[in-house]
Structure formats: structure tokens, C-alpha cells
Amino acid sequence: MHTSRWCGGGPVRASSADVSSPLEQVFLAAHDDLPREAPGSEETTALLLRLAGDLPERPRIVDIGCGTGPSTLPLAAATGGEVVAVDLHEPFLQRLRTRAAVSGLGERVRPLVAAMDDLPLPDGEADLVWSEGAAYVMGFDAALAGWRRLLAPGGTLVLTEAEWTTATPSPGARAFWDANYPAMRTTADNVAAAQRAGYTVQAVYLLPVGRLLPPAGLPARHPAGGRPRPGGAGRGGPGDRGA
């Protein structure tokens, strides 16, 4: 499975059912009108797509936790495939519909309001399952297990995850992440977890520091010290890949 590594705040969208909680409202307000809802860029999306390897001519793609579509639209444009764009927040999907129509991709992008841990999609639906900056909501291991059924034979999973890049983070960084995302691990630990889940890991990638930072004028959301890193790729079971 491919994972690219990323750094952000804690898993504030912790419960798929808790969409009207004060914490959820704060999260959504903080992301309102941002160019993207997770670290990364169109360039890193393109790089991860290359790492994913060969795909069918018009692949079936599921983009989980798509937000307003910063990965959805480049994926549709680059592959010529159709994308089911999944998010639980309808206003994000409304913006995605508008952006897709303006980009001429409206017929190949299908927004779907759904929880990532309860996807109303059939088994074998996707040649490519994609998730940038969202898998932590349900947890890395749960995402690996829960999304594998979506993959067609030979399908690929590409996702990003917050990871430790040092064995000795600063006390402040350790305290912050232990409180907000205690399940965060190293790249090696996540690769091993993917392999145990039946994936063949074919690539990992560390998101550049510049892509971890918020847009100009916005405060960074991680403390100095230990910096989590995004990244990885592999196949689940015979013919299934994770990127």
C-alpha cells in the first residue's frame, strides 16, 4: 500500500457519527475556504499516483475523505477514470461539485456523503482507493482492514498517515501527539502493519517539509521537536497493492 506521510493536528474528526459536536464544528470552521483540507499539493498527488504503478486505462477510483477535492480533481484529470469522492461533510462536496463542473470533470466525479468506516460501496468497486490526510480519523490499521474489500483484484491503496521521524521527539511533541493521536507510529511500524494486513508495500514517500506547513498567514499545528512524517505503498493479498 502506498502511504505518503503527513503532519497535522490531532484526530479531531474522531467519530463518524459525531458530525454536529462542538469539536466537529471547530474543525470544519477552521477548514472553511482553505485551498485543501490536508497537507500536500497537486504535485505530491501526482508523485504518489506515479508510485502507485500501472492502472487500467480508465480506472475506477474511490477518494475517501476527499474534502473539497484537492486530490479528486487531479486524479480524475490525470487518469481519465471515474472518481467516487467520499466525505461526511456535505458543504465540502457542494464545493467539489462546483469545482468539478468548472473543470469539465463533472461527469466523472460522483460525490458521496458517507462515513469512511461505513462505506455504502460494493466489494471490488475500485482499481484505486485513495486517501490523503484522512485515514487517521478511523485509525491506520482500521483503514487498512476496512478499505481492502473495496479493491478489485490487483487494486492499489494509496494513503497518507502521520508518523514519527525520530525515536527521541521533544517532550512537548511527545506529549502533544500522545494526547491527540496515541496510535501514531514510525514508518517501519506502519509498513509492518500493512504487511500483516496482507498488503505488499511497494513504495513509501516522505512529504517535503514545505508541504507540511499551512498556507501563509495560518499558524502551524504541530509543536517543534518530533515531526511526524507522511508515507507508503503496497498490495493487499494476491494482486492487491498498497501505495
Describe the structure.
The chain is an alpha/beta fold and 243 residues long. The chain has a single domain (2-242), classed as Rossmann fold (3-Layer(aba) Sandwich), CATH 3.40.50. It is 28% helix and 23% strand. The protein has helices at residues 22-31, 42-51, 72-79, 90-102, 140-147, 171-180, 187-196, and strands at residues 2-5, 60-64, 82-87, 109-113, 126-131, 151-161, 163-164, 185-186, 199-205, 230-236, 241-242. Helix 6 (171-180) links the parallel strand 7 and strand 8. The model is unreliable at 1-18 and 212-239 (pLDDT under 50).
Q: Mind telling me which CATH architecture this is? A: 3-Layer(aba) Sandwich
CATH topology: Rossmann fold
What is the first-to-last residue Cα distance?
3 Å
Number of strands: 11
Helix content: 25-40%
What order do the SSEs take from the amino end to the carboxyl end, as H and E? EHHEHEHEEHEEHEHEEE
User: Main beta sheet: strand number and arrangement?
Assistant: 9 strands, mixed
Q: Which parts are unreliable, with pLDDT below 50 for 5 consecutive residues or more?
A: 1-18, 212-239
Structural features:
243 residues, Rossmann fold, 28% helix, globular, disordered N terminus
Short synopsis of the structure:
This protein is an alpha/beta fold.
Tell me the layout of helices and strands.
Blueprint: E1 2-5, H1 22-31, H2 42-51, E2 60-64, H3 72-79, E3 82-87, H4 90-102, E4 109-113, E5 126-131, H5 140-147, E6 151-161, E7 163-164, H6 171-180, E8 185-186, H7 187-196, E9 199-205, E10 230-236, E11 241-242
